[in-house]
Design brief:
Blueprint: H1 18-22, H2 29-40, H3 44-55, H4 63-73, H5 88-103, H6 107-125, H7 132-149
Length: 151
C-alpha cells in the first residue's frame, strides 16, 4: 500500500469541500479564535481581510477609523507577481464588511467607503501582475454600489 492510500472508509478529513466547512461547528469558538489568531500573525492577506470585517462591527465606527483600516488593507507591495495569489480576498472581505455596515444602519458610511475602495483599488491593482481576480472583485464592489444607488 502506498503512503497515500487509505483503507476503504478511512480517509483523512481535509478542509477542501463545502461539507468539511460544516465540521468547524464541532469546535468550540475559543479553539477557532486561537487557531485564527495564530494564523493571522503570519498571513498578511488574512490579517487585512479580518481587520476590515472586525472594524465595521466595532461600536461607533466612524469614517476616519474605517478609512485608516481600508488604507492598511489596501496597502500592497509595489509589485505583486502573477505567481502570488489571494489578494482579491481582501476586496471580497471589504465587500462583506460594506454589506454588514449597510444592513446595520450605515448606508452613508458604506457608500463612502465603497467609492473610496473603488478609487484606491484601481490604483493598487496596477501593481498586480495579471490582476484578473482583483479586477473581478473590484467589479463586484462596483456592482454593489450600482445596485444600492438604484434603491
Amino acid at each position: 500500500m502506498s503512503k497515500h492510500s487509505f483503507p476503504s472508509g478511512h480517509r483523512p478529513l481535509i478542509f477542501s469541500s463545502k461539507k468539511s466547512k460544516d465540521y468547524l461547528s464541532l469546535l468550540d469558538i475559543g479553539t477557532v479564535i486561537d487557531l485564527l489568531f495564530d494564523r493571522v500573525q503570519s498571513d498578511d492577506i488574512l490579517s487585512k481581510s479580518l481587520s476590515v470585517l472586525v472594524q465595521v462591527r466595532l461600536p461607533d465606527v466612524d469614517w476616519e477609523q474605517l478609512k485608516s483600516t481600508l488604507d492598511n488593507s489596501l496597502s500592497l507591495p509595489d509589485y505583486v507577481p502573477h505567481s502570488v495569489h489571494g489578494y482579491e480576498l481582501i476586496l471580497d472581505s471589504i465587500l462583506k464588511a460594506l454589506d454588514y455596515c449597510l444592513k446595520n444602519g450605515g448606508r452613508d458610511l458604506a457608500l463612502k467607503a465603497a467609492e473610496y475602495v473603488l478609487e484606491k483599488g484601481e490604483i493598487v491593482g496596477e501593481n498586480i501582475d495579471e490582476n484578473w481576480c482583483w479586477s473581478e472583485s473590484l467589479k463586484s464592489i462596483s456592482d454593489w454600489v450600482a445596485k444600492l444607488s438604484q434603491t
